[in-house]
Here is the input.
Amino acid sequence: MKTDVQTLDAKKAGSVDLPDSIFGLEPRADILHRMVNYQLAKRQAGTHQTKTRGEISRTGAKLGNQKGGGGARHGSKRSGIFIGGAKAFGPKTRSHAIGMPKKMRALALRHALSSKAKSSELIILENGDLKSPKTKDMKDALAKLGIDNALIIDGADVNQNLVRGASNVMNIDVLPVQGINTYDILRRHKLVLTKSALEALEARFEGSVK
Here is the structure.
């Protein structure tokens, strides 16, 4: 699959061949859905917790007499029916992470990349060398490229002017190629890859099973 390469000034800078094994797959919604669930579950803190009756600091003595009180025969104020009492079957600190094989996670990433390529939402940049870290310069470059909502992936060493320039621009994320992931690709309208990021992805998936 051949696609044009652009500069930050929206000028043509040649073309590249996108490997079909990475960008030419037929996107499967079930794999993408499973991967997004995996990522969102993994990031949950899981620190919610309530106290059981054994953790409540209150008297366990029987309340009132067995008979003649005109009400229920309560045995402890630690019970959940009292204000300040325990919570029956309440949440406990735990991990919400779910399992997903490494090969399946890699396949989901390739399906996410293929979905962007198939829907013409993939842009290849010659490089991410922004001249200055000013937000105005970043906005000007994005306007020329016709981008208002995108994930920008640079090489292993991200251009710091690009990072700083995009930090105040809404709906624009900048990540090194090591941080590329399915969820962030899908949550943005467009995916922007520099040539160095593209080369790193090709090397990463080299020899992988289609």
User: Anything to note?
Assistant: Residues 2-28+99-204 form a domain with the Ribosomal Protein L4; Chain: A; fold (CATH 3.40.1370.10).
